[in-house]
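Appendix B. Raw example, untouched.
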Amino acid sequence: MVAPPVRRLIRWTGRAALGLFGLLVAYCLAAWIGSSIPRNADWHEPAANDPDAVPIMVETNGVHTALVLPLVTPERDWRPIFPDSDVAAPGPGYTHIAISWGEKQVFLDTPTWWDLRPWTVLRIVGIGGDGVLHVAHYIRPAPADDIRPLRVTHGEYARLVAAIDRSLPRSPRVRYPGYGPQDVFYDAPGHYTVDNTCNQWTSNVLAAAGVKTGWWTPMAGGVMKWVPPPGR
């Protein structure tokens, strides 16, 4: 026979688990609804042969999103800001740079999702965390389902660059080794929370440029639903 205190503990544990599950379901539902409401609903992508078009890409690993940008355009030369000398494999062949923002401890301490600790998740849910930029250098990235091309005008790209500038590392810059020889992390302004996530940062930058994207996109799918795969 189970003692009354144990029964109460089991009952409260079950209620807590049910409550957490309900919150998770509500969060996912709100994310789906929020990401389905468009910002810049009247935006249209310029044609491929439009001389005013700037080709960029939106990248995802299924959980996190990044913006893949030409290394040099009339609007911005990223080389002085994110020099390839900051990565373990510098070289003259890089053509693009991938920029994303996220939570510092998650980025630096969890190279795989198996390394994510429950207390890290609880801390983010409760109080959030510091921001960090992840910058990777690419050589002629090929379009694919997880790295989707998107065209913007030069004016829109200039606004996109200005939006990214608000997240640039402060001086003096603090950087950390990346996951591999071609990427690096930098301390960056901003506070990561469950409603201001890495994916929300991506859609906010796109929205600031005038591109059609979701209103609230805490998850990667909420960003990528607005960027069709290549060939569609």
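End of appendix B.
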